[in-house]
Design goal:
heterodimer, A: mainly alpha, two-stranded antiparallel ribbon, 29 helices, B: Syntaxin Binding Protein 1, Chain A, domain 2, five-stranded parallel β-sheet, 20 helices, 18 strands, 50% helix, globular, Sec1-like (chain B), Vacuolar protein sorting-associated protein 45 (chain B), transport (chain B)
């Protein structure tokens, strides 16, 4: 494959034209191509492999012959119309008008037409003949049509424009019957005035009128761009933008998540915000398209609605597919950590390299030392003394060096001495051997003693740990039981949201200038930093996890009293944040310790939290009962994830119910068949927004969450806003109650109380927490 | 030689040629099916095709901001509809594609109707068949023959479908047909006629070995469509019925609303693509794996989603997860229903006897087994009838043939008149020895006998899949250049000297999924040979019996009238 870069190389054989793989035979190449490349896009996109035949030139030839005739006819009519309207009709006398009219086109002789050619009625005194001013033909009054001056002007001016811009007006009219009925009725309403004078209208036959109306329609269509097209064009632009930017962002995010410093985090963040804004725009635009003309009377044709729904649907698919592909960025701290980790890794790698170099060097050194050992002096080794000097005495065997580094110093010593003994024996120094053996024995005794001590300690630790675990288990059980009472799954979401919200608030530490709630962050700082410090010592020895428990067993009130005043006040301000601290501690430590709960009490001012802990449990329950929208929606709702399982997969409409598949929808099955799409779309949208919010929350961007939630609200048809809010905030079940539709009011949707919930789900907890304090 | 790809290319080309902007796809009843087999809605939506309309639907609205892509069969009605449409265009611009050859006069009348110059393209794109699998196509014609001869309308449709296939694959083949079938000969001639007439179209770059079109008749092998199947695709079709990749599950007890009808398409369902040719037992274990995989990804308990990392993983996997959840529930439902039916209808036992009837030559044991099963109340009338049919076909000329007794048993079992009629009819008119050109049951040459003997010694690997369709033998001979010319003559003077490489087999009266599997395996195992199988339709037992009945309608009514007159005269 590298051969491409190497211009000098010429390859022969059965090469695959796409991947340049050398296949041994024709057949293998053929099968390779079919297997590997047949599904690839460029195959489909590129020149078609199957046979086709075009009839276009034939078609155009036949069409041109036909078209010319019509173009000529229309142009003739318009030129005459122009002549008829060129003079000032209102101020001219009837006779003069008539003379001019007659000069434009020769009128058919009255005698030649005894019957109306259109309706077949006989002409008489009462049923008088009328002449078409455009073609001169005769008809009765009933069959006569009129062209108003504004229409005439429109037609003539438009054709002038088109004549000037295009060399020939390509469009040609056609006799039409649809417009006829309407004009007849309009004629009858004004017919009483007609006989007197035609000062502002021109008489003509149905045929000419039809031709002209057709022409008018064409002019209108050319100028008129429906709203949907404008919106759609914008939508497409946005999508293109996403297609451009998203890959760039993904590249950045991958690099950043790997702890690399090729891109800057702020830059990536900016890009992310930009891309997300485009997504919101797409969402908003497609939503606008969806609701186009919904309030109109008469309602739009079902097909229009279907088109709008399909556009919305595909936009949703687009957003879902692309947005969810956007990985989240690390927060500043995470990024620092990642960087550090990466650096550490690199340093470690370096160190390892160095170490290996070093050991190699030492090895060589030792080898060169070996000869000097023979005449060196005997060194008495003391227990716990520093390793022997290299220049003199016995050397430990080099083979053991590598492993012994990690071992207990005692073991190392023992090892060394054993090797000394061997060396001494080999050298035949028996007395030295004896002293060395004595040393060895002492060392071994010491080592044994240490081991027993360790074992005792270990078992004690284990016992303590067990206690701890038992306690935790009990607490967990309690929690579980409580939760079960207020619907198990719902509660889980509740906690989850909280844990996310913590993250979402965190960034204020990074950008405190804009945010008024820095005290929150401050409080959180208190909460989060001890976690880290307490989590670190825990890793090497589990015994440290015991500490919080001991504190807990102490009198909690006392602990509270001893709290520094400043912390106290902050805690009072934001007491509800304690749950987040708790959540926070549990999530990072989850990776470190086997039991996340163990870390809980250790965070923040411990005693205070301890006090806070149980109230919080109660509070959660209270909140649920209190009818807060946040939890309220939870309680009746099943877990949204389980609910989603039951839902059809929006990604695969062909797999869904019949009605969503237009391929099999009979044209007349119409509206009944379409309802599910609606539902489907809505459901999808909800999912969409949910994903949005999850995503945004994860990256810790409160403002985004807010915006997204808002956008979500906008995007969700008002009809089930309430359900939706419950859904977004609590993650509760969404039930598309299409039957019960409250009237949509935009102002309501923006000012809805539910909106606050996704922004700051802490609010209810906050309030409850305050009251408890 | 991938028919799915060929059709897909056509459709993609159409959509691409129309440029950017909102589009509507105008189709007729048949092209709707053709398109839906190769494109999913979401796929086509991404190409800005938002509406799908039938050309014959009356209440289409004027939407001048849409471009129309018309994909239509060149029938008289469609041309008329199109003329109407062009006279009063509802869309801004029209790209017209016919799925087959259209006459010059039709082009002219269309051109004359296009007074507003809205047509931007008129082409023939030969996607005039249903692409079922990459190597299997169908024309969805049920009841192509009347008695032993073609229904004229269906003959022309079949000719069109087959020539379109040749054009889409760019093959100008030599034609061989089954001599014993008049219909096969007739079709071969018609195809040849089209090739001669449209010689410009069929001018492709010559390949070293010309492709071969082999035309067969279903009546030569009436056994295959009568057997119960155990590979996924075939089994689903046999027990549930596949109609343009759609499966109707509405009769499944306790089915949820979303699963009333599911789509099984290898194009966008990986699990199906990987499992469609595997047998039922393997599917079971694969489904289990799929479930487990799914359970792993599925976030269910609160503990699992507590940490941010979990959430993140969830959100990132979310689309896959949703797609997977759809796939899982679909396949679990389908396989669940299959196994329910297997249990309910006692299909394991039935199938074992069927296979014995089809592949072995022990009359007394076969008769005993059939009799035993006919007494079993769990065996449905369809299964009972097919057992008797298989018996009748195999032991037609056996000295101790006891068909009348079995027919009596069928009657006693309460099997409906229709099934009993088909049973006699299949023997007499459709697939009996008199009709068949080749011997279905006893191997002819020494090699085959030894092979069967060896097989007998080795023991049978799987009792339920012993049967190899007769097509396998035919194709095997064809590939080896040993297919007898006196049974399968060439049309025209020229014959193929080399072994064929590109083979198109067409079965008049319908192919089966078992045969599709055979072709799939042949394609896999024989390098350098590429086979595409087609049929007027793809049969399961039920549709096959329908086909037999409808083709017999003519002859049988005559026959039955004779019988009645005879019985009347006897009285």
């Amino acid at each position: 494959m590298a051969s491409l870069d190497d211009p000098g190389e010429v390859r022969e054989g059965f090469l695959c034209p796409l991947c340049l793989k050398d296949l041994q035979s024709f057949y293998q190449l053929q099968t390779h191509y079919e297997e590997e490349h047949s599904g690839e896009d460029h195959d489909v996109k590129g020149q078609i492999k199957s046979a086709v035949r075009s009839h276009l030139s034939d078609f155009k030839k036949h069409r041109a012959a036909r078209i010319d005739h019509y173009v000529v006819e229309v142009n003739k009519l318009i030129i005459r119309l122009e002549k008829l309207t060129a003079f000032d009709r209102t101020n001219a006398e009837s006779a003069k008008i008539r003379a001019i009219e007659k000069s434009v086109v020769p009128w058919v002789n009255d005698q030649d037409v005894p019957f109306c050619p259109d309706c077949g009625n006989k002409f008489s005194i009462r049923n008088r003949r009328h002449h078409c001013r455009l073609c001169g033909s005769i008809m009765c009054k009933k069959c006569m049509e009129l062209i108003s001056l504004p229409l005439a002007n429109k037609l003539t001016s438009a054709s002038k424009d088109s004549l000037s811009s295009h060399t020939s007006p390509s469009q040609s009219p056609n006799s039409v019957h649809g417009s006829r009925r309407g004009s007849i009725s309009s004629v009858s309403s004004v017919s009483s005035v007609l006989d007197e004078k035609d000062d502002d209208r021109i008489r003509c036959c149905t045929h000419c009128k039809g031709t002209l109306l057709k022409r008018e329609q064409q002019i209108d269509e050319k100028e008129h761009i429906p709203d949907i097209v404008k919106l759609y064009e914008k939508l497409q632009l946005c999508m293109e933008k996403v297609d451009q930017k998203a890959p760039e962002y993904i590249r950045m995010a991958t690099s950043l998540n790997a702890g690399e410093t090729t891109y800057r985090l702020e830059h990536a963040n900016d890009l992310r915000v930009e891309v997300q804004k485009v997504y919101e725009l797409i969402d908003a635009l497609s939503k606008k398209i969806l609701t186009l003309g919904l309030n109109q009377d008469p309602p739009p044709h079902p097909n229009t609605l279907r088109l709008q729904r399909m556009i919305r649907y595909s936009a949703t698919l687009f957003v879902q597919e692309k947005l969810l592909g956007l990985m989240s960025l690390p927060t500043q701290e995470q990024f620092e950590e990642l960087k550090k980790r990466k650096e550490e890794m690199e340093r470690k790698k370096m160190l390892e390299k160095q170490a290996s170099l070093e050991s190699q060097r030492r090895l060589e050194e030792r080898r060169s030392d070996l000869p000097s050992r023979a005449n060196g002096e005997v060194v008495y080794l003391r227990r716990g003394s520093a390793p022997l000097r290299k220049a003199e005495g016995w050397l430990p065997l080099s083979g053991g060096q590598g492993q012994s580094e990690d071992l207990d110093p005692l073991l190392q010593q023992i090892h060394n001495i054993t090797s000394f003994i061997k060396q001494a024996k080999a050298a035949g120094r028996t007395d030295e051997v004896r002293t060395l053996q004595e040393n060895l024995r002492q060392l071994q005794d010491e080592y044994d003693q240490q081991q027993t001590e360790k074992a005792i300690e270990l078992s004690r630790k284990q016992a303590e740990e067990e206690d701890l675990q038992r306690e935790q288990l009990q607490r967990l059980c309690e929690r579980e039981w409580e939760r079960e009472r207020e619907q198990f799954q719902a509660a889980s979401l509740h906690t989850r949201t909280r844990s996310l919200d913590f993250r979402e608030i965190r960034p204020f530490q990074l950008e405190p200038s804009t945010e008024p709630c820095t005290h929150l962050a401050h409080a959180l700082d208190l909460g989060s930093s001890p976690v880290q410090s307490s989590a670190t010592p825990k890793t090497p020895s589990p015994s440290s996890a015991l500490e919080p428990i001991r504190v807990w067993s102490g009198p909690p009130a006392l602990g509270q009293e001893f709290l520094p005043q400043s912390t106290m006040s902050q805690q009072r301000e934001v007491p509800s944040l304690n749950p987040f601290e708790e959540e926070d501690s549990s999530s990072p430590t989850a990776e470190v310790s086997t039991s996340p709960r163990a870390a809980e009490p250790s965070c923040g001012p411990p005693s205070h939290i301890l006090k806070e802990y149980n109230p919080f449990e109660e509070e959660e329950e209270e909140v649920a009962v209190a009818g807060n929208p946040f939890t309220n929606s939870n309680s009746p709702a099943p877990n949204p994830f389980s609910e989603e399982d039951e839902r059809p997969v929006p990604g695969n409409p062909f797999e869904e119910a019949t009605c969503t598949n237009p391929f099999e929808m009979d044209s007349d099955s119409g509206p009944e068949g379409e309802e599910p799409i609606e539902e489907e779309l809505l459901l999808q949208q909800i999912d969409n927004i949910k994903a949005y919010i999850f995503d945004a929350k994860q990256c810790g961007r409160l403002d985004e969450v807010e915006r997204t939630a808002f956008a979500g609200q906008m995007a969700t048809p008002n009809l089930e806003r309430d359900d939706y809010i419950g859904n977004v905030s609590g993650g509760g079940c969404f039930k598309a109650n299409l039957d019960v539709l409250p009237p949509p009011t935009p102002s309501q949707s923006t000012g809805s109380p539910g909106l606050q919930v996704p922004d700051c789900p802490a609010a209810p907890a906050l309030a409850a927490g305050r009251s408890l304090l | 030689m991938n028919v799915v790809l060929a059709v897909k290319q056509y459709i993609s080309k159409m959509i691409e040629d129309s440029g950017p902007g909102m589009k509507v796809l105008l189709m007729d009843k048949e092209t709707t099916g053709i398109v839906s087999m190769v494109y999913t809605q979401s796929e086509i939506l991404q190409k800005e095709v938002y509406l799908f309309e039938r050309i014959d639907s009356a209440n289409r609205e004027v939407m001048k901001h849409l471009k129309a892509i018309c994909f239509l069969r060149p029938t008289k009605e469609n041309v008329d509809y199109l003329i109407q449409e062009l006279r009063r265009p509802k869309y801004s611009i029209y790209f017209i594609y016919f799925s087959n050859v259209i006459s010059k006069s039709d082009v002219k009348s269309l051109a004359e109707a296009d007074e507003q110059e809205v047509v931007a393209e008129v082409q023939e794109f030969y996607g005039d068949y249903i692409a079922v699998n990459p190597h299997l196509f169908s024309l969805n014609i049920l009841g192509c023959c009347q008695g032993r001869n073609w229904d004229p309308a269906q003959l022309s449709r079949t000719t069109q479908g087959l020539t379109a296939l040749l054009l889409s694959l760019k093959k100008c083949p030599m034609i061989r047909y089954q001599l014993s079938s008049e219909a096969a000969k007739r079709l071969a001639e018609c195809v040849k006629q089209v090739i001669t007439k449209e010689y410009e179209l069929f001018e492709f770059r010559r390949t070293e070995v010309p492709p071969l079109l082999l035309i067969l008749d279903r009546c030569d092998d009436a056994i295959t469509p009568l057997l119960n199947q155990w590979t996924y695709q075939a089994m689903v079709h046999e027990l549930l019925g596949i109609n343009n990749n759609r499966i109707d599950l509405s009769r499944v007890p306790g089915i949820s609303k979303d699963l009333r009808e599911v789509v099984l398409s290898a194009e966008n369902d990986e699990f199906y693509a990987n499992n469609m040719y595997l047998n039922f037992a393997e599917i079971g274990s694969n489904i289990k794996n799929l479930m487990e995989d799914f359970q792993k990804k599925k976030p269910k308990e609160q503990q699992k989603l507590e940490s941010i990392a979990d959430m993140k993983a969830f959100v990132e996997n979310y689309p896959q997860f949703k797609k997977m959840s759809g796939t899982v529930s679909k396949h679990v439902t389908v396989v669940g229903e299959l196994s329910r039916l297997v249990g309910e209808r006692n299909l394991l036992e039935v199938s074992e006897v069927e296979q014995e009837l089809a592949c072995q030559n022990d009359h007394s044991s076969a008769l005993q087994n059939v009799k035993r099963l006919l007494q079993n109340p769990k065996v449905t009338e369809c299964d009972a009838a097919r057992l008797v049919m298989l018996y009748a076909l195999h032991y037609e000329r056996h000295s101790s043939n006891s068909l009348p007794g079995l027919m009596m048993d069928l009657r006693n079992k309460g099997v409906s008149e229709k099934y009993r009629k088909v049973t006699t009819f299949i023997l007499v008119e459709y697939g009996g020895k008199r009709v068949r050109g080749s011997d279905l049951f006893s191997p002819k040459d020494a090699v085959a006998i030894t092979k069967q003997f060896l097989k007998g010694l080795k023991g049978i690997e799987n009792v339920y899949t012993q049967h190899q369709p007769f097509l396998h033998e035919t194709l095997d001979h064809l590939i080896k250049g040993k297919l007898k010319e006196n049974l399968y003559p060439y049309l025209g003077p020229s014959t193929l000297r080399d072994r064929p490489q590109d083979i198109i087999v067409f079965v008049i009266g319908g192919a089966t999924y078992e045969e599709a599997l055979t072709v799939y395996n042949l394609n896999r195992t024989t390098p350098g040979v590429r086979i595409v199988l087609g049929g007027t339709t793809v049969h399961n037992t039920k549709s096959f019996l329908e086909e037999v009945l409808s083709s017999g309608l003519h002859g049988r009514s005559k026959e039955s009238s004779q019988v009645t007159s005879r019985s009347a005269s006897r009285r």
